[in-house]
Amino acid sequence: MPIRICCIYIICFFLSLPAFSQEMLAPLGYNPARAKRNVSAKPIYAKTTALTLPFFEDFTYEDDPDTTRWVERQVYVNNTMGIKPVSRGIATFDGLDQNGIPYDPVLSTHLLYADSLTSQVIDLSTLSPADSVYLSFFYQPQGNGFYPEASDSLIVYMKRKITTGAWVKVWAIPGSQLQPFKQAMVAVTNPDFFHADFQFRFVNKASVNTNDDVWNVDYIRMAAGRNMYDTLINDVAFSSEPTFILNDYTYMPYHQFMVNPSGELAPAHAASINNLSNSPASVQYDFTATELLTGTPLANETGGPISIAPRQEASLNYSTYANNIPNGGQYQRAVFENKYFIQARPGEPVSNDTIVREQKFENYLAYDDGSAEKSYYLKLGATLPGKTAIEYRLNRKDTLLGVAIYFARQVPMAGYKDFSVAVYRELGSNGAPDVVAFQQNFLFPGYLNTNHFYFYKFDSPVILDKGTFFMGTIQPASGVSDSLYFGLDANRITGNHAYFNVGGFWEPSAVSGAVMIRPVIGWIIASDVPEVPKKEELWGLYPNPATDIVKLNYSFNHSCTYEITNTQGRVVQSGALGEDRAVNIQLLMPGVYYMHLKADGILASPQKLVKY
To answer: Are 247 and 393 in contact (CB under 8 A)?
Structure first.
């Protein structure tokens, strides 16, 4: 091949790389869902009366493990991390503790025993190896997270009646890439296990730094009279969360929804069920819906019977209910409670036959379900800014008050993350400039908030006409700001409406999932996007940059205190201001900081401070 032609092929190859290599995914370094649920968690106590066989658990709930069966809350019980679980609800093992933070926040390669799930005491004293007791469960590596490596593992222990060396490893499997849920059968054959204080325990060995090395566990059974071929299950169960009733958004304001409810509602919504048995199943299913704030009935539907082949999954489809929706006021909230039922057959568990799901209409637009399974970030260049933008649509003219962003923490924490928020009427194409409606600069990500999203109120409201707009972030050029990590809802399988720009032009995102950025519209209500109370007071600081002394200039007459935070939000210096309004910053390391001024308990807008 001539050299010239070869060079052309090489150049074309590298020009094609950015669309596939500039969007990056990483494990979560923090899971606020765990932290939020653990704030109000009740202490776990050992049961005074031991359990007896049979033992059954399929995690058809969320948050903490059921204390009637388990003595720990380290695992994450959820409906989002598994891919095609046996039944709805799983227990997820990873490298994050019960508070949602890494077991080791510094070393990314630190391999230790991480999450554990230990049963309450089970009385096996009346049984023996002759009773053929088996423990079975389904497991899946990776799921919607990142796969456990070969050095990682999922382990099962059982407890003997001795004080030293009581826990015995009875089963283990090394890490691997994504696989379907597989059933494990563990025989209880050691005579030492048959006592009144028996327990079993799941443990994962992982890199205890992020939520990678993920294992999912589902449908745990322990009973006598079983054998290694006793893998059949007499059960028909919901296997996943129902789809959202909205056509594209997951959440939206009610006044935007009511402009075109039939267009915003999906033509149908669905739920999946599994026939876990070895024989065909005929299933009757029902659906009801109610608007909770007014008590208005929205739907009452009976379907079926539907025939499901052995060991197969089926989809239950439900019609929409646009004609029964009550009218709302200009900014009224609304909550639609949707209940899904299947009729259990004799001898089947009933816990996995019902789902209750709320469709909330709040003051924001969203494509995500509120849970992040991964982190999304851009691989930034050295000379151009990095931009993200999400496409949204308004059914009527409205006002943007701010944006709520789910920031995913890095481990270790990054050093500098200055960014801007932008609202675009149009994204530039074919060399045309972006049409910017609003931009707010010198922001930094919020990690200290215990809720999922950090709210940024705009300096002035942005009025937008009916139609399409875009909202996103801008990260500065010159490689000064390392990339922002956003939460990614990996469960969204429809279009993600996301665009990115790291080479001077916009490209559609190739990542599956929803980047968790939510425009806040119309009015502020109590939700999971709280704002730190502040009052817009005019003030400044000088000189800036500074090396030793910085003075504050403000016109209001209050006793004032100050805080200086680094770009991670950590307070590095604080104190009261004297009459000279001067602050000595000699002890601060050179870098970028933010000065916060508080007067009579009211926070003024922070000011960026550069220390030389």
So the answer is: no
Considering only CA atoms, which of 248, 253, 262 is closest in space to residue 497? Answer: 248
The encoded tokens of residue 205 equal: 């060995």
Q: Which helix (H) or strand (E) holds 381?
A: none
Residue 478 has pLDDT above 80, yes or no: no
SS (H, E, C) 431-473: CCCCEEEEEEEEECCCCCCCCCCEEEEEEEEEEECCEEEEEEE
Angle at 122 between CA 120 and CA 128, to 5 degrees: 155
Q: What is the pLDDT of residue 604?
A: 73
**Is residue 141 reached through a cis peptide bond, with omega within 30 degrees of 0 on the bond before it?**
no
- For the record, the structure tokens of 130 come out as 């002759």
Count Cβ neighbours within 10 Å for each residue of 396-426 and write b for 16 or more, e otherwise.
eebebbbbbbbbbbbbebbeebbbbbbbbee
Beta bridge partners, 274, equal 237, 313
Average pLDDT along the chain: 85
pLDDT, position 25: 92
Alpha carbons within 13 angstroms on the beta-carbon side of residue 191 total: 1
State both tokens at 154.
């999922």
Structure tokens at 156: 């099962």
| Whole-number Å distance between alpha carbons of 33 and 22 | 28
φ and ψ at residue 113, rounded to 5 degrees: -70, 130
Does residue 196 contact residue 226 with C-beta atoms inside 8 Å? no
**In angstroms, rounded to a whole number, what is the distance separating the alpha carbons of residues 575 and 598?**
10
Q: List the domains of the chain with CATH numbers.
A: 31-228 (2.60.120.260), 237-359 (2.60.40.10), 374-521 (2.60.120), 539-611 (2.60.40.10)
Angle made by CA atoms 125, 129, 133, in degrees to the nearest 5:
85
Please give the C-alpha separations between residue 327 and each of 245, 248, 255, 265, 267, in angstroms, as whole numbers: 18, 21, 9, 15, 20
At residue 126, does pLDDT exceed 90?
Answer: yes
Average pLDDT over residues 521-542: 58
The model carries a pTM of: 0.79
Rg (CA), the chain: 28
pLDDT single digits (tens) 284-333: 999 999 998 888 999 999 988 999 999 999 999 998 886 788 887 665 78
Beta-strand pair 591-599/607-611: antiparallel
DSSP 520-546: EES---SSS-----B----EEEESSSB
With a cut of 50, say whether residue 528 has pLDDT above it: no
- Which residues partner with 118 through β-bridges? 201
Q: Which tokens in the block code for residue 469?
A: 């707009």
Q: Are 92 and 79 in contact (CB under 8 A)?
A: no
- Dihedral angle over CA of 61, 67, 73, 76, nearest 10: -10
> How many other C-beta atoms can be found within 10 angstroms of the C-beta atom of residue 379?
13
The CA-based angle 104-111-484, given to 5 degrees, is 50
Question: Distance (Å, rounded) from C-alpha 427 to C-alpha 499?
Answer: 9
186-223 pLDDT tens trace:
999 999 999 999 999 999 998 766 667 899 999 999 99
Residue type, 285: Y
CB environment 298-319: b (16+ within 10 A), e (fewer): bbeeeeeebebeeeeebebebe
Q: Tell me: pLDDT of 9 over 60.
A: no
- Grouping H, G, I as helix, E, B as strand and the rest as coil, residue 193 is helix
Distance CA 95, CA 110 (A): 10
Contact in structure between 172 and 141 (CB atoms under 8 Å): no
